[in-house]
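Suppose a colleague, Dr. K., hands you the sequence of a protein chain of 222 amino acids and asks what its three-dimensional shape might be. Before reaching for any lab equipment, you can write down a predicted structure in token form. Begin with the sequence itself:
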Amino acid sequence: MNALLIKNARILDPGQKIDRVGCMLIRDGRIAWWGGRDTYPAGSQFDVLEAEGLVVCPGFIDLHCHLREPGFEEKETIYTGTGAAAGGGFTIVCCMPNTRPPLDSVETIEMVKAKVQKGGVVRVLPIACITKGRQGKKLVDMESLARAGVAGFSDDGDPVRDDTVMRRALEMSKKLGLPIIDHCEDPVGGPPEGEVKMVARDLKLAEETGGWVHIAHVSVAG
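The predicted structure, expressed as tokens, is then:
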């Protein structure tokens, strides 16, 4: 049996309102016990990691990462990207769909999930495209993609310029309970006005539809 006592770390879990210095026993990759400073469960055998001044907390979640696979493996792969995530304390990452081919179908989502199953180091939640091919014209089959397990929808790298398409996407987001993660940029307006204009439009559409919009890449005060 593999057991490790993490000794006198700061144990943080905001979800359970825990913030205290204590010890934690890890056995076979799971938390088996935890208690106060300089305590340990009687009768247990374990290695000890002195962790004074260090933090033990739930794994971080990256809501917006680029694993680049399929299509851009020279930049990143599911294996290298999830390995880097684990090294930084991230146990869940949400991968964006601007791959080649884009993640705009159940087939491409299942392909990513299979690659994660085979070579992923941490849990991966795929983000699907909002529109077919990220072209901003025709909505993907959002209901089928939701059933396939996507965590949200985004044409990341490109905005959805068509107001009607964005409205329909937000209406579906309300129905499915999944966010529209929007790349807010109007190339016609140029920075910074183009970003402010697009954010204002999407906030208005979200208010009118009751949809769930998440604004990515916020970079200007307006």
